[in-house]
Design goal:
The complex is a heterodimer of chains A (about 375) and B (about 270).
Chain A (H helix, E strand, L loop, with lengths): L1 H10 L3 E10 L2 E11 L4 E5 L6 H8 L7 E6 L8 H4 L3 E4 L11 H12 L7 H7 L15 H13 L5 E5 L7 H16 L3 E6 L2 H7 L2 E6 L2 E7 H7 L3 E6 L2 H10 L4 E6 L2 E5 L2 H13 L4 E6 L1 H12 L10 H5 L2 H4 L10 H13 L13
Parallel strand pairs in A: 3-7, 3-8, 5-6, 6-7
Antiparallel strand pairs in A: 1-2, 1-4, 8-9, 10-12, 10-13, 11-12
Helix pairs in contact in A: 5-6
Chain B lengths: L3 H13 L2 H23 L20 H9 L3 H10 L4 H6 L2 H5 L5 H35 L4 E2 L5 E2 L1 H33 L2 H19 L12 H4 L14 H27 L6
Antiparallel strand pairs in B: 1-2
Helix pairs in contact in B: 1-7, 2-4, 2-7, 3-7, 4-7, 4-8, 4-9, 7-8, 7-11, 8-9, 8-11
């Protein structure tokens, strides 16, 4: 069975979605999404709550029927062949749910039996990985949100997945739990697992993902490599040295550096990555010690906001403070979906704006 | 794909871990137990219903009396208590998405649920019969039973006939379970489905006594709850049993087909 799944994986991409549309009555939850996730990708699916991320994941898992368009998981249609399409696939949408009247371990035993094969033999290891071994003998009804989230990851690991779908995996986790979750995703990715990770947390996606799709009210506004996205921003950099006055002078003469300006305790400027490399050498040659030279982190956030116009969720992606409180950030999940008309009105602006030519969902993944 | 037996076994285990399962079991034990206790504390007998006048002659008369009493609401209730919940509970717990993203198809999950709900109804029915029999034998002894035709059958043969009668009584319960399963699948609401299925079976009893509908009576569900009585006649009358079989199938099949169709196509959005 596993060999079969691997054979298929080499033929077809783990995820291939074309022209995917889902409507509920008058409300369009997903409006024509194209998405290709190649083997080995850690694919960040980024957007504010209510932007249709979960709906796409549900269609990938065969839980809901697309209104139109094509969904293929390892080349198979989750609607016509749900068991075949999900072979080697695991994950969860929204908060993972379990039978509250059974223990954590019993829940995993049930799911392992529904997986078949040798899934049962992985229960102990999966519980160890998510550090639930001690609590596995208690009923899930008494679990905290974070524990259920971790049990959801354990349940996914039972399937020994080649493709892992995670919907807002950090939700409900404390900072340490989030760190563990990210470390686990990174480890699974290194071991060859393809990951599709939906998130409204920019730093999470930046840390883990090589490719990213930014979605707003059911439509992609950017799809491509994360470094392409950074490049498309024109490169806003920050520099701290031992002598900012002399640094500004060096910047003024360096090629490829534009708009140098003092900004509090540091200097900001726009440049390409290559120009920055040359600049660092010039600075050292000028006898300046560099304390910090890095892309201005807020720039990606600014771009994210300009792409998604996520006013209702503005707090969600701003810095570590918001990251520590994902519950609060997701407190109003329907806000964006609840107002599709007005949001759609701004869509064209955002799509046409900073992403430029990259805004077209890329076929060449 | 995982086999039906595995999915079914887990449906049974889930039932065994839920409190509501034991409400029906308690009713199935308590109802005949209370009846026997009440009978032994007084002198009269319920002689206005079939077998009622024989309850002090033979303990074997108690189970058929229970079947007659139980058809009004007790067994429709016990049956729909689980059948009305078994799909809706997954919606309530948000667990449909959990089990439907493993290696098992929707059809198999639904079939396992139907079988588990029917297993429960059958178990509760025979549990009630065993308690009624034990109570009856303790009170009135294991004596030959007087049939509806006035003849007498040996206690051993009567016991065998009763087992078959309980099996026939299960037919309309399949129909009730199917209605409850349909409501459970369509409404995603457990309480509504249990009450709804019970209300439908009681409404059908009212329809059965409406004037002008007498000709319809043999084909309504409540009538099928009496089909087993044909076997406790001499000679045995199989006609009502055969009719019960196809009438109940006419109720059950469309309900189950509709429910299965809806379950296999629905968008799993909750949870």
């Amino acid at each position: 069975m596993a060999a079969d799944a691997r054979a298929t994986a080499s033929d077809a991409p783990p995820i291939s979605v074309r022209g995917l549309v889902k409507r509920y009555g008058d409300v369009t939850a997903v409006a024509g999404v194209d998405l290709t996730v190649e083997a080995g990708d850690v694919y960040g699916y980024l957007g504010p709550n209510g932007a249709g991320k979960t709906t796409v994941l549900r269609m990938l898992l065969g839980l809901i029927r697309p209104t139109s368009g094509e969904v293929r998981v390892f080349g198979r249609d989750p609607q016509s062949d749900p068991v075949g399409a999900l072979r080697g696939v695991a994950g969860f949408v929204e908060a993972p749910k379990f039978y509250p009247y059974m223990t954590g371990r019993k829940n995993l035993e049930l799911l392992a039996d529904l997986d078949g094969g040798d899934a049962r033999s992985r229960i102990g290891e999966a519980l160890d990985i998510v550090e639930l071994t001690e609590r596995a003998k208690h009923k899930v009804g008494g679990y905290s949100h974070g524990m259920r989230q971790r049990l959801g990851v354990a349940a996914a690991l039972l399937r020994n997945p080649q493709l892992l779908l995670l919907d807002e995996p950090a939700t409900g986790l404390d900072p340490a739990g989030m760190r563990d979750m990210r470390a686990l995703v990174a480890r699974l990715s290194q071991a060859g697992t393809t990951v599709l990770l939906s998130s409204h947390l920019l730093n999470e996606v930046e840390e883990l993902c090589n490719r990213v799709a930014i979605v707003r009210t059911g439509t992609f506004v950017f799809e491509g490599r994360l470094d392409e996205l950074r490049a498309s921003m024109g490169g806003d950099w920050r520099l701290r040295t031992t002598d900012d006055v002399r640094a500004l002078a060096v910047l003024a003469e360096a090629p490829g550096i534009t708009n140098p300006r003092a900004d509090g305790l540091e200097v900001r400027f726009d440049a390409s990555e290559a120009a920055v490399e040359a600049l660092s050498v010039r600075l050292v040659e000028a006898g300046l010690a560099i304390r910090a030279l890095a892309p201005h982190a807020a720039a990606l956030e600014d771009l994210f906001f300009s792409l998604t116009e996520g006013d209702a969720n503005a707090g969600a992606v701003q810095g570590p403070g918001a990251a520590g409180d994902p519950e609060g950030a997701s407190g109003d999940p329907e806000s964006a979906a609840g107002n599709p008309e007005s949001a759609a009105g701004d869509l064209e602006n955002a799509a046409g704006d900073p992403a430029g030519p990259s805004a077209t969902p890329g076929e060449d993944a | 794909m995982v086999g039906l037996r595995t999915v079914y076994a887990w449906e049974i285990r889930k039932l065994l871990r839920q409190k509501r399962t034991y409400i029906g079991v308690a009713l199935a034990i308590g109802f005949p137990a209370l009846f026997v206790i009440a009978l032994s504390l007084q002198t009269g007998e319920p002689d206005d219903i079939a077998f009622g006048r024989y309850v002090r002659e033979s303990g074997l008369a108690i189970p058929p009396v229970m079947l007659i009493f139980g058809s009004i609401w007790l067994f429709p209730l016990i049956t729909s208590l689980v059948a009305g919940d078994i799909v809706a509970a997954e919606d309530h717990n948000g667990t449909l998405k959990t089990i439907l993203t493993r290696s098992v198809g929707r059809g198999r999950v639904f079939t396992a649920k139907v079988l588990a709900a029917l297993t429960y109804a059958l178990f509760a029915l025979f549990l009630m019969g065993i308690v009624a029999l034990i109570g009856g034998v303790l009170m009135s002894g294991f004596h030959p039973l007087t049939t509806l035709s006035g003849t007498t059958v040996s206690s051993k043969k009567a016991l065998l006939l009763l087992v078959v009668c309980f099996g026939i009584y299960f037919l309309p319960l399949i129909a009730v379970a199917s209605i409850a399963l349909l409501l459970s699948t369509l409404t995603h609401n457990s309480a509504g489905s249990v009450v709804g299925a019970l209300a439908i079976s009681i409404l059908l009893q009212l329809v059965a006594i409406l004037p002008g509908l007498e000709s319809l009576q043999p084909y309504l569900l409540p009538n099928q709850f009496n089909a087993w009585q044909g076997l406790l006649r001499t000679p045995a009358d199989w006609a009502p049993v055969i009719r019960a079989a196809w009438v109940c199938a006419l109720y059950a099949a469309p309900c189950l087909a509709w429910a299965a169709w809806s379950f296999s196509r629905r968008d799993v959005t909750g949870g």
